[in-house]
Amino acid sequence: MKTTKATVFKVDYNELDKHINKFFKKKKIDIDYQCIPYEVWFNDEEHYFDVDGNVTDEEIEDLKDGNVEYCLQEILDWMCKEKVINAGEYIVEVYW
Q1: How many domains is the chain built from?
Q2: What angle do CA 61, 80, 20 make, to 5 degrees?
Q3: Is 2 within the bounds of a domain?
Q4: What is the pLDDT of residues 35-59, one digit of tens each?
Q5: In whole angstroms, what is the distance from residue 96 CA to residue 85 CA?
């Protein structure tokens, strides 16, 4: 069997919320971001994101205007584009 080794970034949803809010604060975006309500997640879940920094200026402007519901992919890509996080595969763990 041929396999390849891959790096995956795992992050707890609470830590992700803190990191996103810190990023938003630096960008002067007044939103208390929480991925559970904005993404409509539930306990005992994992969510996968392929982050590559590919986000349009229009998507960034929408985020700056406060349109963050169901936009975690765009937020992560923007953070990657700004070199706040690395490109790669992310698993967001949701357990409480």
Answers
A1: 1
A2: 70
A3: no
A4: 999 999 999 999 999 999 999 999 9
A5: 25
